[in-house]
What we know:
Layout: H1 2-14, H2 35-38, E1 49-50, H3 54-57, H4 79-89, E2 93-97, E3 100-115, E4 120-135, E5 139-150, H5 154-163, E6 165-166, E7 170-171, E8 173-175, E9 180-192, E10 198-205, E11 208-209, E12 225-234, E13 237-247, E14 254-255, E15 258-259, E16 263-274, E17 279-290, E18 292-293, E19 296-297, H6 313-318, E20 323-335, E21 338-347, H7 351-354, E22 364-374, E23 382-391, E24 406-407, E25 410-411, E26 420-431, E27 434-447, E28 479-495, E29 500-512, E30 517-529
Antiparallel strand pairs: 1-11, 2-3, 3-4, 3-30, 4-5, 5-9, 6-7, 8-9, 9-10, 10-12, 12-13, 13-16, 14-15, 16-17, 17-20, 18-19, 20-21, 21-22, 22-23, 23-26, 24-25, 26-27, 27-28, 28-29, 29-30
Amino acid sequence: MHFRLTGILFFLAIFSTAAQSRFSPLERQYLLSEEAQIHSKENNLHTSIQPYFINETKSLFNMDSLCEGVHYTIKRKNFINKVADNFSNNYLVPVDSGIVSIRATPLFDLELSYDPSKKQQYYRNTRGVLIYGDFGQKFSFYTGFYENQASFPGYINTFIDSNLVVPGQGLTKSFKGDKGQDFGLPFGYVCYNPNRYLTVQFGQDKNFIGNGYRSLLRSDNTMNNPFFKLQTSFWHIKYMVLYEQFMDVHAEQITVLGKGYPKKYSTTHYLSWKVSKSFEFGLFESIVWQAADSNGVRGFDWAYLNPVIFLRPTEFYNGSADNALMGINLKYQILHNMYAYGQIILDDLKFDELKKKNSKYPQKYGFQLGARYFDIAKIKGLAVQGEFNYVMPYTYSHRLSLQNYSHYNQSLAHPQNANFIEWIGIIDYNRKRWSFSNRLVYCNYGADKTAATNYGHNIFADISQYPNYYQGNQIVQGYKNTLIYNTLTAAYIINPKVNMRLEASFTYRSQKNTDENIVDKLIGFSFKTALFNKYYDF
């Protein structure tokens, strides 16, 4: 089904009738070399809405000129040299014909890692293709797929066994006698940009709202999902409306319509306002509802087609029948090369209960605080980042588990779901084609020791079934776990346009509770084109 959708998107784009009305890849390392331009006080870019629309960034930098300053000079006198030039400086298959521009490139991820303490070897073999193009000044398309076979460390295998999906990459089946996983990842979209004020996008991909490493509002943590997106920009305002379909693969593969995993829909509104050159303020609202209820087929609720933000403030105030989330995103540019950011998420918060002195009703909320400082001491490419995330128990869950804030058995926000406190520290250094990074995650979270309990970490459980839900709640309640995750990478970027890189890494992970301390130490090497984020730091 997903592959058919990708094909349809491709052919729709071809038969639509060379502006770049497409979006940059959603991968945190991809645009680090342009960080100073993206976060400059002098531009009107709303950095919290990602991926970035290329028409909005072309005045800051040219996406097709990411190799400037690191270009390999190769004399294109013969076929071999032309291929070598494209391999290191361009797309493998560039086609330009008047108003039509098409690019194609292979995608791959060949990884080998080893845990010396466990004497275990792991691998990843990914093959794929990316094709995108522009037709005239208004139409663009972007499509491709990955096919993967991989083996993973024990903690990821445990996640897969429990959730049936590879983190962020969809459903999987066993490979080589349960020693590995076989899974695919299609993606694609069609984009129409009728004028400078409006962008229309339809496809299957990921979205992100925020300025941090994590997002508590909407992240790219899950599998790609179908969506229809409208974005409009005017004055110092950018407004996004996102209509989406999600799937719950935890439930039985039978619905009232017959075979198939149960589906749910959402409408998301996000209003970003550049209050000043330094201050960006965003308002977030999302409604999630199941496609079928106890009365049978519900489908897409057309009442939620309304593109106006705060569609249901009164119902949210009292606690809605569907899953209503609201939030705030903030960013303040402290210096030309330093900014602070934050988020607040409110999930079905009942304000009348807040007024009660001894209320035990679970208040579901979270917040984020962070800062990033780049080009430190005038060293171009050197950056540090610190981030703090705090999410109360049961946040993103719902009394009807099918209406939780998730897709493909993963949270649409944070990979730790809820009931956690997390600290993150990041150091990045990029110089020409060299890239170095160190990321440290320290997290305390409260899990469930048995299936008969639910302390608020598992957002997929039906919260109405557990009496402790109404007993008053504290952060990190339940079976306390402490996670330490540190990964150090060094990479040489062969082709910046597709983030083709040779990479070496060392990862240390420790998960400790009262019963055990699980430690993984991985030495890894890879050759890949990295165009989307993978989150294994949980």
